[in-house]
Amino acid sequence: MVQDVDLNKVVRQHLEMEGFFAGFAVRGKPRCEGSSSSESVASEPVAVSGSSCVDTPRSEVQMPRRTTPADVVKELEAIAAEARECRKCGLGGTRTNAVPGEGSPKTRILFVGEAPGADEDAQGRPFVGRAGQLLDKIIEACGLKREDVFIANILKCRPPENRDPRPDEVVSCLPFLQRQIEILNPEVIVALGAHAARTLLNTNQGIGQLRGEFQEYCNGIGRPPIKLIATYHPAYLLRSYTPDNRRRVWEDMKKVLVELGLPVPERGKGA
């Protein structure tokens, strides 16, 4: 559609001017099941062009020297402070609190959602409402705690009335997340829902097609790709909490545990 092409052009031009476009290319084979869900009809993603992933093993790539978790914490706090002062888009004037993200500086898993909601905006913390409580249960079902992982969003501020993110908002805000990914260097990114998955994977495909298979997210030239798996957003599960949807999320999380060499509980009791 002409509208899609124009949107991508605008976003790409913004990113090129800011010098941020290099980290957006993704390699991998999206899964095509011919299936769909209500999440797959979300608004068009911000799709941008970028550099190709370099097929270099993580062990052979020189990563920035951060000798202690304290170094990571310091850098994450600097990003959070910038996000709280940011006024690059209109959301800076409508939010109550920015929601930079939180979690372990030594995390192996990074959960990424779409944007903060009302509870998150009020508290300045990610995933603390009903969807966040369900995410906590999913994490616990994996034998982990919220403090063991890191949780963030594509946007750091709540869109009014929880509307979909706009292209200019994503362009302005996504670099914060890119820098967090670079600093944390997680082994796996779990994209929660259609918006997060489609933005990070530079695709128009729906969540029903994207979920269930690892793909690669590239975070800059010369850096190793990071494994990314998409799954349903907890808010979607609350709206459509069927045994099949629960099973699909649990299957996705089991793949994450296997990828990390962690024990897989017999069943996801918390999810």
Q: What does this entry show, briefly?
A:
With 271 residues, the protein is an alpha/beta fold.
Task: Spell out the blueprint of helices and strands.
Blueprint: H1 2-18, E1 26-27, H2 69-85, E2 102-103, E3 109-113, H3 118-123, H4 130-141, E4 150-153, H5 167-184, E5 188-192, H6 194-201, H7 207-210, E6 215-217, E7 226-231, H8 234-239, H9 243-260
Parallel strand pairs: 3-4, 3-5, 5-7
Antiparallel strand pairs: 1-6, 2-4, 6-7
Give an overview in words.
Helix 2 packs antiparallel against helix 5. Helices cover 39% and strands 10% of the residues. It is globular. A hairpin with an 8-residue loop joins strand 6 and strand 7 (226-231). It has helices spanning 2-18, 69-85, 118-123, 130-141, 167-184, 194-201, 207-210, 234-239, 243-260; strands spanning 26-27, 102-103, 109-113, 150-153, 188-192, 215-217, 226-231. The chain has 271 residues and is α/β, with parallel strands linked by helices. It contains nine helices and seven strands, in the order H-E-H-E-E-H-H-E-H-E-H-H-E-E-H-H. The longest helix is centred in the middle third of the chain and has 18 residues, at 167-184.
Rounded radius of gyration (Å): 17 Å
Distance between the terminal alpha carbons, to the nearest Å?
Answer: 39 Å
Note the overall shape.
globular
Class based on secondary structure composition and strand pairing: alpha/beta
Task: Give the DSSP E fraction (strand runs of 2 or more residues).
Answer: 5-15%
Mean pLDDT: 81
> What is the total tally of β strands?
7
The main sheet orders its strands as: 1-6-7-5-3-4-2
Q: What ranges have pLDDT less than 50 throughout 5 or more consecutive residues?
A: 1-45, 47-52, 58-65
Task: Give helix % range.
Answer: 25-40%
Major sheet: 7 strands, mixed
**H/E order of the elements?**
HEHEEHHEHEHHEEHH
Helix segment count? 9
